[in-house]
Amino acid sequence: MSVKKASPGKHRKTSLPLDRGKVEILSHVRSFLKHNRAHGYVVGGFLRDMLLGKPSKDLDLVVSKVEPAGLALHLHRHLGLSRPVVFPRFKTAVTVGKGVKIEVCSFRGSLEEDAVGRDFTLNCLYAELGTLVGARGADKVLDPTGRGLKDLRRGVLRTPVDPCRTLWLDPLRILRALRLSAVRGFKLDRDLRECIPRLVYLVGRTAQERVRAELEMILLSKRVLSSFKAMQTLGVCEIVLPELSRIYGFDQSTPYHVFDLFTHTLKATANAPADITLRLAALLHDLGKPGTRSMKGGHAVYYGHQEISAHVAEDVLRRLRFPRRIRDRVIFLVRNHMIHYSGMWSDKAVRRFVRKMGPDLDKMLLLAEADQKAQAPGAHQGIPARDLRRRIRALRKSDGIHLGLPIDGYEIMSVLGIDEGPLVGRAKNRLLEEVSSRDRPMSRQEAVEMLKKWAESLRIR
Asked: Quick check: helix, strand or coil at residue 271?
């Protein structure tokens, strides 16, 4: 595909709304470049989203005649942004602040040469910093490939050169394409779609932190169901989430499910609120089912699958380098998602359940509701989670008893003088046992004193 040079005919008058923080940042960038007799453009996703009238927290800048690290350091010193992280290999520096992540990189030759090294034509649009700030938003947009503005209007993801070359240069672009499709609704160009299965194996060689960042945005999008189906069709799941790919087409063979396990999982994920902990828990909650299948009364049962699923979830979350605070909560939700509630539960049993769930109670109920909505209509296992929620509200209203722990994991670590680890969970379980056995709430002071006695008995301190 040939690349057309930018020309006056490729300029487009547009309105780019900028908030005060971004104007301040761009003004400092402009002053720095002017002082150093350098030149720079706003480019990529920030400009694309501004043209669409969408907010963006990523500000991409491309500069010449000045080191990206120097500009990022200037923003750090004068605007209080974070200390720059420099990537010498890519001639890029990143700094964060004022609600924006700023990535500064050097030009790759001319404007046209720089454009062909980028991912998609609708990200190959440039706005000069001088006119952008000076004209207070009225700006000329440069379109070096000659296709960027057209593809943006049509919502098409097309690479500036042969898609296999573009994806080979950075295989993460495969996930980025799926993420842009999920978040912005862009459609993949036919050539791009055909190339992805050929090069998807290269994603396995990409840093897991980068993979995780793209997956998070896909998971939190409104198109999470269709996006993961596309990932499976294109072979991306098999590389990035092989555990999910393995349940594709798995017939659950129970009266509670009309969908195969893969479809049920995606529907449950889409049903969950757009919270990363909840969406991950929904995505991973049944991955242990195939290994626990047995037959009873003519249909399949999956005794203990939640425990196996929790171990699988831990492997996935560790591999993708999710922070421990997210891992721990997701694993807890997966391990406890089988709520065998019935209307026969006593008030004491409800209190015991709530205390066991602790701060994850609301998320557990939301996960249960999302799971139930993805089952066969009217064939829920047990009484729907919303009835349990009603019981909990009634108890709180009638007797005012606080059903949770008065102290969290961080306070437990502080009281015991320990770091994160299994001991924190043991301490929390000991508190839960005590709280569940009493008919009145436990105060914070009582919890602290109990922890100290427990620690002394174990000679922790």
From this structure: helix
**Three-state secondary structure call for residue 40:** strand
Other residues' Cβ atoms within 10 Å of the Cβ of residue 10: 18
Angle at 77 between CA 76 and CA 78, to 5 degrees: 100
Q: Cα–Cα–Cα angle for 75, 78, 84, nearest 5°?
A: 35
- Dihedral of the alpha carbons of 431, 434, 439, 443, in degrees to the nearest 10: -40
CB contact at 8 A, 362 and 321: no
Domain ranges (residues) in the chain: 1-147, 162-240, 252-399, 409-457
The structure tokens listed for 410 are 């961080």
Q: Which two tokens stand for residue 441?
A: 């709430």
Give 57-94 as a DSSP string.
SEEEEEEESS-HHHHHHHHHHHH-PPPPEEEGGGTEEE
Domain 162-240: give its CATH architecture. Answer: Orthogonal Bundle (1.10)
Mean pLDDT comparison of 42-46, 88-92, 117-121, 455-459, highest-scoring range: 117-121
Spatial separation of the C-alpha atoms in residues 263 and 419, rounded to whole Å: 40
Return the CATH class of domain 252-399: mainly alpha
Which helix (H) or strand (E) element contains residue 49? helix 45-51
Q: Which CATH architecture describes the domain 1-147? A: 2-Layer Sandwich (3.30)
Give the tens place of pLDDT for each residue, 94-121: 999 888 899 999 998 889 999 999 999 9
Residue 461 has what DSSP assignment?
A: -
Assigned token pair, 241: 């989430």
Q: What is the dihedral of CA 437, 309, 343, 270, to 10 degrees?
A: 120
**pTM score, two decimals?**
0.81
